[in-house]
Design goal:
With 168 residues, this protein is α+β, with helices and mostly antiparallel strands. It contains 4 helices and 5 strands, in the order E-H-E-E-H-E-E-H-H.
Length: 168
């Protein structure tokens, strides 16, 4: 028997405070690999060792494929978070949702405004057995709760800095 359990619906309770309250930080390091280029031949490893994978440019970007890429990783995080939030909201509303899945497509594009690059995302929710209006309301409510949806909608606080030397 597995020890895996979904989180309690109480995680949806509103936080009342004056400051952001960090709950968890995921940390991943990417090194350049064979070509010295993180996107083309990098290796991504989490600080706890649970994630370890090779990064490769997909054929559409001139690479050989054969590894994951940043768009897939972002899509996986978004889909997992959205699915989790949706499941919690469904449980709280007393909805029975079986075999639901979320598919996220993250697209890497050229930006006509600055000539550089941009990302976009499309989320598709598959909710077999739910009446379409109920499914649409659940997805709308999930979009309000999911931090990835919030990030895509409102942006994200981020800091970029140079450290004196890279740790091994």
């Amino acid at each position: 028997m597995s020890d895996l359990k979904p989180p309690s619906p109480t995680v949806l309770d509103k936080y009342r405070g004056d400051e952001v309250r960090p709950l968890y930080t995921g940390r991943v390091r990417v090194s350049g690999g064979e070509t010295g280029h993180g996107r083309a031949s990098g290796v991504a490893r989490s600080d706890d060792g649970a994630l370890s994978l090779d990064l490769r440019l997909p054929p559409e970007l001139g690479g050989p494929g054969g590894g994951s890429n940043p768009e897939q990783l972002l899509a996986a995080g978004y889909a997992a978070c959205f699915h989790g939030a949706m499941t919690l909201l469904a449980n709280r509303a007393g909805l029975v949702v079986t075999d639901a899945c979320i598919e996220v497509a993250v697209t890497f594009s050229r930006d006509p405004i600055d000539g550089l690059y941009l990302l976009s995302a499309e989320v598709e929710a598959y909710l077999p057995g739910l009446e379409p209006g109920v499914a649409a309301e659940l997805v709308r409510n999930t979009e309000r709760v999911c931090p990835y949806a919030k990030m895509f909608r409102n942006g994200i606080t981020h800091v970029v800095c140079v450290v004196p030397s890279a740790a091994p």
